[in-house]
Input
Amino acid sequence: MEPPDIERLDERTVQRIAAGEVVERPASVVKELIENSLDAGASRVAVSVEAGGTEGIRVRDDGVGIPADQLEAAVAEHATSKIGDIEDLDRGVATLGFRGEALYTVGAVSRLTVRSRPPDADAGAEITVDGGNVGDVRPAGCPEGTTVEVEDLFYNTPAREKFLKRTATEFDRVNAVVTGYALANPGVAVSLEHDGRETFATEGNGDLRSAVLAVYGREVAESMIDVEWTPAGDGAGADGAAGDSAEADAPVGRVAGLVSHPETTRSTRDYLSTYVNGRYVTASALREATLNAYGGQLAPDRYPFAVLFVEVPSGDVDVNVHPRKLEVRFDEESAVRSAVETAVEDALLDHGLIRSTAPRG
Ligand code: ADP
Ligand code: MG
Output
């Protein structure tokens, strides 16, 4: 057999392959758009999807907006208002996005419209990208803030389109993402609509329990107990060494949030939401530590609800291991595990929901 020629892929093909890495499915698009809205300082984020997001996704916010003369840049490759250079990246990024690739890649694999009006502008404007073809900026009537619409995701990438699951499954994932951000940001009114029907809407009043009530309903909200743990509170009595400096050096600064009564459970782990330094993450270490804290109090194959915020020094966590930035890696994984387990255990013990085990070291 003759060796085949090696040829450089054309730009459009490269663009679509790269897009598949960032936007895998409707839920990943929704994640990127919500993050943009939060980065824009929105106090309301309204998400609405059709057919699980495969036919349409719309995210509307009341954030700072995008001036008309910046719309083209917003949908361009590697264009971001969030970092200037590699030094900014090394200093640590406060915003959720920074790669400047989300709108660009979504525009490559769908029909994307970005419509925006900054609060001080008298008129709005919009730009459309259709399968990577960027249209002209046009005037558009719109409220203050930004609306991003994505239609026919993957219509020009049939291989990716085939990979999508049933509408209901895609919607479940969208729901999980929107729920994740709604709970992480109780001060933002987040709503979700599927095929014209409201799934949930949080009030945005800053209260975590009220956000849980909106998302999971009254029974779950009422079963939730408070978790609040800091290293000073934990070790002070035992060794008397906990002070400001010990706390500043601690591998875990704080674990806080809500966990459910051991009898308020579901059959999947999907209701264990974890956040590291305010970012919604999937970290099996955090889930396992939470479950361990329940000891033998959970029925077989039943999982509790949890909304847990873990704070670690920003240098100790790598949130950048994947472009989708969901999985995290900890430098001090065992310390993080034990802090989370202790935090949840203490809360459950306080409420007499588990029995005290051997003293912890
Ligand atoms: P990134 O978020 O990594 O900067 P994106 O492609 O997601 O990259 O967005 C590109 C730029 O478009 C952002 O840096 C921001 O300036 C602007 N932008 C995107 N979405 C919004 C929004 N909802 N409100 C205000 N500005 C936005
Ligand atoms: Mg972004």
Remarks:
- The two ends are 65 Å apart (CA to CA).
